[in-house]
Specification:
The chain has about 180 residues and is an alpha/beta fold. It folds into 2 domains: about 90 residues, Rossmann fold (3-Layer(aba) Sandwich); about 80 residues, 3-Layer(aba) Sandwich (Rossmann fold), CATH 3.40.50. The chain contains 7 helices and 7 strands. Strands 3-2-1-4-5-6-7 form a 7-stranded mixed beta sheet, with helices on one face. The longest helix is centred in the last third of the chain and has 24 residues. The radius of gyration is 16 Å and the shape is globular. The structure holds 5-O-phosphono-beta-D-ribofuranosylamine. The site of 5-O-phosphono-beta-D-ribofuranosylamine (GRF) has 16 residues, from helix 1, strand 5 and helix 7. 5-O-phosphono-beta-D-ribofuranosylamine (GRF) binds next to helix 1, strand 5 and helix 7.
């Protein structure tokens, strides 16, 4: 299977995925695409000799990303910290073939504006005793696609949002690649 990763930022999850599938007979990461020309994820992709592609929001909305994915015969689209709203046309073509990871236990802390540190700050403010990750299929509504996998981690009262973020990242890195592998099988 041919995988493309879409990411807007650092790309630590993208790196784990590239590493995991490096010598896999099941899947190959054939493209890392980003709307941010200076995103660190692009340097990580170069390290793994994975081709990169950058585009603007306008270009994406005009269909350029979909064209690229189809030209590269991409089977599965993996979102790993991708911060733009995906155009409906792209979602339709890749319906049930697009996966996202969310840094909380959906349906809690999902929806517009709930990404990155905003999520962990909200979890902290609510005084929750646990948080976690959700891996889900992508549909037209933010964070509402079918949930594939969740894992939780306890929070202690002393944890800062940064510490919560670290715990969540550790879960993401541990589980995202293997959940992708079992899903594409
Ligand atoms: C992750 O926490 C992921 O859940 C969210 O964006 C973050 C990306 O982190 N959607 P990184 O760029 O993979 O380090």
């Amino acid at each position: 299977k041919r995988l493309a990763i879409l990411a807007s930022g650092s790309g630590s999850n993208a790196e784990k995925i590239m590493e995991y599938f490096q010598n896999s007979p099941k899947a190959e990461v054939v493209l890392v695409a980003s709307n941010k020309p200076d995103a660190f994820v692009l340097q990580r992709a170069e390290k793994f000799k994975v081709p990169t592609f950058t585009f603007t929001r306008k270009e994406m909305d005009a269909g350029i990303l979909l064209e690229k994915l189809q030209a590269e015969k991409v089977d599965w689209v993996i979102l790993a910290g991708f911060l733009l709203k995906i155009p409906d046309a792209l979602i339709h073509v890749y319906s049930n073939k697009m996966i996202n990871i969310h840094p909380a236990l959906l349906p809690n802390y999902g929806g517009k504006g709930m990404y990155g540190m905003h999520v962990h700050e909200a979890v902290k403010a609510a005084g929750d005793k646990q948080t976690g990750i959700t891996i889900h299929l992508v549909n037209e509504h933010y964070d509402e696609g079918k949930i594939i996998f969740q894992a939780a981690t306890p929070i202690s009262p002393e944890d800062t949002p940064e510490m919560i973020a670290q715990k969540v990242h550790a879960l993401e890195h541990r589980y995202y690649p293997e959940v992708i592998e079992s899903l594409i099988d």
